[in-house]
Every structure is written in structure tokens, then in C-alpha cells.
Amino acid sequence: MKRHQHNGIAYYTFESLDRFDELIHAITTRHGGISVGRYSSLNLTTGTGDDPAAVGENLERVCAALNLRRADLVSPNQRHTANVRRIEQTDRGQVYTGYDVFVTNQPGVPILLRYADCTPVLIYDPVHRATAVVHSGWRGTVQGATRAAVEALGREYGSRPADLVAGIGPSIGPCCYEIGEEVANAVRAAFDRADELLPVRSGKSRRHLDLWAANQRWLAEAGVRQIEVAGLCTACRVDEFYSYRIEGKTGHFGAVMALRHD
Ligand SMILES: [Zn+2]
């Protein structure tokens, strides 16, 4: 990924998605906002106790940096599912609860999902000009939220997996994501060769979960060949992102994607 700074807002983009002029996308950081304390500073959620006025200003700043209108944002309260919602022009400004995968082919309708360790997956079909944004923590990953996104792009817009360009964004990495047996068993139930996704650190008994490899697996098995993995761990990089695992009650950064108006 490439880091950008614009009017004090720091954000990342996937180099593989940067080449499409019709696409706006970003993974925001914690830098450039007005939230204070544990939320410092570019927190994009009101769901963990931050001042709503500060979050509102932060959203305004992100939208200004990306040349989007805040009133157009579709910004759901995600719920760790693999449920898919197709977004239309009439959905501008709406908040939907109970979905973790959003697809659209409508220009000017930016989709913003929020993260603090869960994995953002952004997918673009340059042939049909359709996008998908996925929120995939361990629950979404074992439920195949990323696979559901590829399937939805195919069903709704005729996307072919071989045309898709996918980015797996910053999230808690295999270095830091120690898990219990319950989660390990859910991974074993969801994936063949699950041990590859459940590394053990030397001298330790508990397994770690590799969310990046697991989401890459869903994409590859669905036929997606162009996959960029950020390889940025939110728990290693609390200087840059928010991490629930490290910080407990904290803010959220965002993944935003939109098709430009013609
Ligand atoms: Zn780490």
C-alpha cells in the first residue's frame, strides 16, 4: 500500500487499485482528526463512546480529503456476518445494520466500513465498474464474507473473478492474533488445510490466526488472481491504526470506496 497525506489526513491506498481513475478508495489511519484521548485522533465511529461531534468532524475531513460528500456516505454498523447488501442511488446517506459486505455499481455513493483489527477487503471489477467492501474479522472470515462478496459481484453485475482486483487491508496480523481453541475449531471447520492459517509461535502453545491468508484463500478459491495484501498489522502499528486487541476501548479507522461521477 501507499501512504498519502492530504490536509493533515493520513491514509493508504492499494497500488493495484490506484491505476483506475474512476475509482476513489482509501484506508484511513488515526491521524488528522480532532478526537482526543484513547480515540486520538481520526476516529470514525460513535459506537465506542467518542464525542459524536468529533466523529462528525473527522468524517467531514476524510470526505474533504477524498473529494466525497459526507451526506452521500453509506456507513453501516457492521455485525460480523457474511450478509451482503446491494447499494443503489437511493441508499445515499443510509445506515444499515446487519450486513458486512456491500456491493454497488452506482457512481457517487461512497461506502465506508469501520475497523479496529478486523480485516478490510476491497474488491473492484474494472470491466463492469462494480465494487465490494468487506468487513471480515474471524467470524466473517469463517463465514466466508469475502467469498460472499465475489459471489455477489458475479450475481448482481456479471463480474468474472479473473477480472477482479482485490486488496486485503491493515488488520491484526498473524504475528499478534493469538486465539483460543473455539476460534481455531471454527477455522478448521471452515477451511481445508486449516493448519496453514493457524501458525504457532515457537515456544508457545496457543495458535495464531492469519486473517490475511484466510481471506486470500477465499479470493483465490473463488478464482480471483489479482490480490494485494497490505501486510500491515494493526496491533503492531497502534501508532498508525486502532487496535481493539491492544487498546481495548478505542476508535475505528475506515475503509472507503466509491465510483467517481463521470
Ligand atoms: Zn502484529
Explain this structure:
With 262 residues, the chain is α+β, with helices and mostly antiparallel strands. The protein has a single domain (2-259), classed as CNF1/YfiH-like putative cysteine hydrolases, CATH 3.60.140.10. The protein has helices at residues 15-18, 52-66, 138-142, 145-157, 181-190, 211-221, 244-247; strands at 2-6, 9-13, 23-28, 84-87, 101-104, 111-115, 119-125, 130-136, 165-168, 226-229, 253-259. The strands form two sheets. The protein has a six-stranded mixed β-sheet. Strands 1-2-3-11-6 form a five-stranded antiparallel β-sheet. The radius of gyration is 17 Å and the shape is globular. The relative contact order is 0.20. Bound molecules: zinc ion.
Looking at the structure, the CATH topology is: CNF1/YfiH-like putative cysteine hydrolases
Could you give me the name of the CATH homologous superfamily?
A: CNF1/YfiH-like putative cysteine hydrolases
Q: CATH class, anyone? A: Alpha Beta
* DSSP summary: helix tally: 7
Question: In angstroms, what separates the terminal alpha carbons?
Answer: 26 Å
Give the distinct bound molecules: zinc ion
**Total strand segments:** 11
CATH architecture: 4-Layer Sandwich
What is the typical, i.e. mean, pLDDT?
97
SSE order and pairing:
Blueprint: E1 2-6, E2 9-13, H1 15-18, E3 23-28, H2 52-66, E4 84-87, E5 101-104, E6 111-115, E7 119-125, E8 130-136, H3 138-142, H4 145-157, E9 165-168, H5 181-190, H6 211-221, E10 226-229, H7 244-247, E11 253-259
Parallel strand pairs: 4-5, 9-10
Antiparallel strand pairs: 1-2, 2-3, 3-11, 5-8, 6-11, 7-8, 7-9
Bound molecules: zinc ion.
